[in-house]
UniProtKB/TrEMBL annotation:
<feature type="binding site">
    <location>
        <position position="200"/>
    </location>
    <ligand>
        <name>Mg(2+)</name>
    </ligand>
</feature>
<feature type="active site">
    <location>
        <position position="19"/>
    </location>
</feature>
<dbReference type="InterPro" id="IPR001441">
    <property type="entry name" value="UPP_synth-like"/>
</dbReference>
<feature type="active site" description="Proton acceptor">
    <location>
        <position position="67"/>
    </location>
</feature>
<feature type="binding site">
    <location>
        <begin position="64"/>
        <end position="66"/>
    </location>
    <ligand>
        <name>substrate</name>
    </ligand>
</feature>
<dbReference type="GO" id="GO:0016094">
    <property type="term" value="P:polyprenol biosynthetic process"/>
</dbReference>
<feature type="binding site">
    <location>
        <position position="32"/>
    </location>
    <ligand>
        <name>substrate</name>
    </ligand>
</feature>
<feature type="binding site">
    <location>
        <position position="24"/>
    </location>
    <ligand>
        <name>substrate</name>
    </ligand>
</feature>
<dbReference type="InterPro" id="IPR036424">
    <property type="entry name" value="UPP_synth-like_sf"/>
</dbReference>
<feature type="binding site">
    <location>
        <position position="19"/>
    </location>
    <ligand>
        <name>Mg(2+)</name>
    </ligand>
</feature>
<feature type="binding site">
    <location>
        <position position="181"/>
    </location>
    <ligand>
        <name>substrate</name>
    </ligand>
</feature>
<dbReference type="InterPro" id="IPR018520">
    <property type="entry name" value="UPP_synth-like_CS"/>
</dbReference>
<feature type="binding site">
    <location>
        <begin position="20"/>
        <end position="23"/>
    </location>
    <ligand>
        <name>substrate</name>
    </ligand>
</feature>
<protein>
    <recommendedName>
        <fullName>Isoprenyl transferase</fullName>
        <ecNumber>2.5.1.-</ecNumber>
    </recommendedName>
</protein>
<keyword id="KW-0808">Transferase</keyword>
<comment type="similarity">
    <text>Belongs to the UPP synthase family.</text>
</comment>
<keyword id="KW-0460">Magnesium</keyword>
Amino acid sequence: MSPKHRDLKAPEHIAVIMDGNGRWARARGLPRAFGHREGAKTLHEVVAAAAGLGIGWLTVYTFSTENWRRPAREVKGLMKLIAERAHAEQAGLLESNARVRVIGRLGDVPPVSRRKLDDLVTTTAACTGLNFTLAISYGGRAEIIDACRRAVESGHPPSDENEFRQLLYDPTIPDPDLLIRTGGDQRISNYLLWQSAYTELYFTETLWPDFHRAELEAAIAEYGRRQRRFGRV
Ligand code: IPE
Ligand code: IPE
Ligand code: MG
């Protein structure tokens, strides 16, 4: 990334759809679970890279509301992996001053994984470096429905976009500037539907376990070349 790009147009918030773990494993004749484990290593690397590049916010799609429809064994393995990594990464994240948030329908997450995630959020709550958010049991439509429910319960229907935003899972998270999807598919898959109204989209064929620092830098450089207009001329 040239200094020019960094100075002029670095994305403040990067959202990532970490896709392709299953295909990465299949290409090696391994069970899908191996791909998920490798994907967790990649995430560790990308978090460190994002923090090093001075990215303010990183939000990663870890498990969607639709992913509950996968075979029970895969779902169980993913929840176990989330619990394990949340615990194992805690000290390092704290050390690097990263603040972790979790968004999604966490009531559906098994208690063990939920506890580890809660722990991670609480432990890093005072950190002031990278704002690192995990979207777990997350769906953009679910988030909008949940916001509507909260509005009805409160008896105060939102009168504009700003008021509606306050009803989202975490209104302090800014809209993503750049959304990266790995794995070759060019779709949103129910991620951050409200927030990505004017987000720049970046798709790469690279499978998530193969997405390393250089690819992150390439995506950021590409973002620097985009012209955002927000409807203006
Ligand atoms: C992304 O990889 C991880 C999750 C959705 C949990 P996939 O598991 O979707 O991998 P592919 O897309 O089948 O290769
Ligand atoms: C999107 O990937 C969800 C996550 C990366 C967590 P999927 O693999 O679930 O998306 P589709 O089914 O290909 O659209
Ligand atoms: Mg997939």
